[in-house]
Input
Amino acid sequence: MKYVDEFRDPELTAHLLHELTAATTRPFRVMEVCGTHTMAIFRSGLRGLLPPEIELISGPGCPVCVTSASHIDAFLQMAELPGTHLAVFGDLFRVPGSNGTTLAHARARGAKIDVVYSAMDGLELARRNPDEQVIFPGIGFETTTPGIGATILAAGQQNIDNFMVFSTHKTMIPPLMALLGDPALAIEGLLCPGHVSSIIGAAAYQPLAEQNHLACVVSGFEPTDILQALILMARQIGEGRSEVENAYTRAVTWEGNGRARAMVATIFEPVDMEWRGLGTIAGSGLAIKKEYGGFDAQSRLSITVPESKEPPGCLCGQILKGITAPPSCPLFGRRCTPSSPIGPCMVSSEGTCSAWFTYGNETR
Amino acid sequence: MRSALVARPTIACRGRETRRDIIDRWPKVGDYLVIHAGFAIHTLDPGEAEINPKLMREMAKAMRD
Output
């Protein structure tokens, strides 16, 4: 396929690997923030081909993985209310709440839950079922939130009042500022998420580059994209620079997508948000504004978010912070596998544990 | 096309409708779209689409030379 095959070309990949080896003059640690990067690096086999001086650490950029157990519990509460019908993204379906129950379990017990491709499918579900309360559990970062905002706006314009969203939307910069300010992690390079950056723009990483002295490079998701980004990063680190560079110009601009950000600012407002494994981070979440409160499932249905309880033995919290790698978890590959996951990092196809389990033989 | 806010891209979406509510630049026929969960979030023309592969080819050529 045009503009896909070019980025997987073996000869080009070999040349870029050679260039990366030449540009890498000393050991350094890189955090790849985005779950899609994590999976792309494993699936392509790049992890085993990189110069040994480069250590890759997975960050908190998998939206399902960072959804707190308490929010899953709240989604389960809503699913069990009479007359409700949940429309969910597929990778949320098997994420366990505090007591190990998932939305898949709830559906097996009779709850109405549909997996949808887009929030707009949830709105269509509401339009076709006026006697039901259709609820869309809003998860995801800057890439996803504008579309959810547009769906709420469309619901208002079409006078569909049986559609609601439970927002657990999150923003990426606050947790990165919190995490990467920890000198113990010793991260020097940040592989910045491609599609979040389409919205927030490459410029959004400037405070991280300046305050935390990080070499920040926005990367696409194909093997040659990732190698090109790592070459730019290795050069920065070798030359003692900490700047923002954009190696994904076909999807990301310096200023980002202002129209999408305006949509978010119309519908949502910043709040403190709980992240799985990271705790509550000030200003890192988005709640639906009061003027759109009719579409806010949490307030309209009076849903109380309980305190989170993590599955005993699960190390997803440490893995999401980049402190621990999956093989160190006592559950990994034994009681916790992609077919029978216990922690969220094993559930999502973008989760770090799922990537290690599926492609572990490709790793060093 | 069903409305100004809905498009039907020719590849990659298997005929699904794609919303243009939050797109950064209004696309024309022949442009490429970055699509996320049913919403187009970025438009690029064929010239912009060529920038990344061109840079990579130049990088690889420099290595060969």
The first helix of chain B runs from residue 46 to 64.
